[in-house]
Amino acid sequence: MKSSLRHTVPDPDAARRGLLVAYEEITGGSDDLAEWLRDHGNNKALLLDEDVDAIHVQAVMDRYALDLNEAEIIEVGRDPFLIAYALVAPEDRVVVTVEASKPSCKRANRRIPDVCNDLGVQWCNSFQMMTALDFTTGWRTRSSS
């Protein structure tokens, strides 16, 4: 029996602030990644200039469970917003995650790859992304000098 209880979807501004907080957590560092992200050209290419669609967030939340309680919603965190942004254009956007698929996980413990699979959203891990983008570090060049 399906529950008629629906999740309360935070406003789009809260989602944007959440994404900016994640971005600021990285750019607040002093490593090479933080420096690279602080570069205007790089961050302009990576930050989405759009609001999240509450309907998409709801569709993602429904893949966790139709009746999540408040503690579970907190546990799920920002992941539904990330997936909802990708759901806008699933053929053009890919969610990059460090999580591995584990279909046996239920409710708030569901993993990003499994929710993406349910919704037809592409996903990959960091290593797959670097391979697809032909990312190189130049470490071999430095170490062989």
Proportion of helical residues: 40-55%
Q: Oligomerization state of this entry? A: single chain
Largest sheet properties: 2 strands, parallel
CA-based gyration radius:
17 Å
Distance between the termini: 66 Å
Secondary-structure map with pairings?
Layout: H1 12-27, H2 32-38, H3 40-46, H4 54-64, H5 70-76, H6 79-87, E1 94-97, H7 112-119, E2 122-125, H8 126-132, H9 139-143
Parallel strand pairs: 1-2
Helix pairs in contact: 4-6, 4-7, 6-7
Protein model, in words:
This protein is mostly helical and 145 residues long. Strands 1-2 form a two-stranded parallel ribbon. Strand 1, helix 7 and strand 2 form a beta-alpha-beta unit. Helix 6 runs parallel beside helix 7. The N terminus is likely disordered.
Keywords, separated by commas or semicolons:
145 residues, mainly alpha, two-stranded parallel ribbon, 2 strands, 53% helix, 6% strand, disordered N terminus
Gist?
This protein is mainly α. Helix content is 53%, strand content 6%.
